[in-house]
Amino acid sequence: MRTHLALRRGLALTLCLAAAGAGLATPAAAAARTDTVVVSIFGEPGDPVTGGTSHVWRTGPDSVRAVRSGDGLRITAQNPGAERFVFDLIPPAGEPMTVGTHHDPTATPTAGRAVLNVTGGNRSCTGGQSGHFEVLDFSADANRFWALFEQRCAGAGGSYFGEIRINAETPRGPLIAPSRLQFPARAFGAGAISVPITVVNTGTEALAFGAPMIEGRPAKSAASRLGDDDIGIAGTLSFAVRESTCAAVPAGESCTVWVTYSPLFPGPVEAYLVLPDTRTGDRYRSSLAGFVG
Hints:
about 290 residues; mainly beta; Immunoglobulin-like; 6-stranded antiparallel β-sheet; 5-stranded antiparallel β-sheet; 1 helix; disordered N terminus; Choice-of-anchor D domain-containing protein; Ig-like_fold; signal
């Protein structure tokens, strides 16, 4: 659990923004940049909220509105002419929003518990839901927010999950959405799952990428002695690039890398998706994480 950061109660924050296409970047050594909003959601087959599809919104021509009231946060996101998605993230009653994991462990939300609720169009979890959201970064003035979320509707065959970033400082380079991809926990030997990671060239010149690759990221712990070792071999075996459209990407255009996670090792595994820039030598990356248990 990360160190908790206090939130000033009663603060209301409203951001009316526009979002298009895709996400955030983490090149190895580059100057910092602030992107206002990036929201990503992915749905497993059988999830009734997303219908098993994925969506990404970021500052641009789409509408993203984040409203803070009391200790909770509501985010609405919509592409022009498309369905509106609503994200409600509420910590347990009497507690401020903090860095760390907030669980919604009951199938039916109960007063006093943390609540994660996402609706897409007219679709929601009609029979209740369970899930959690993990706050990775949060400023005391509520102007900066970074969280991962996962939820499953009661009786559904799959979960939906994703990332929310508001005013997050990120290194210069193409936007990669999400900047961190946390797959839902899966049973050992369960089927693989693939999701699209979107890369947007926000610069003024074309980008040229080499073949995207998976690099290990150690995640070994006392609770997972069979997980990643010190050089991340389990991560490189658990994740794979299924396909990619990222090669020459003109300014303002985007491409997609499909990443597959296979639950091959007990406990947590982590890795990086790395896109090498063949012209500058820069390496842009997104973090990947999975868990078997």
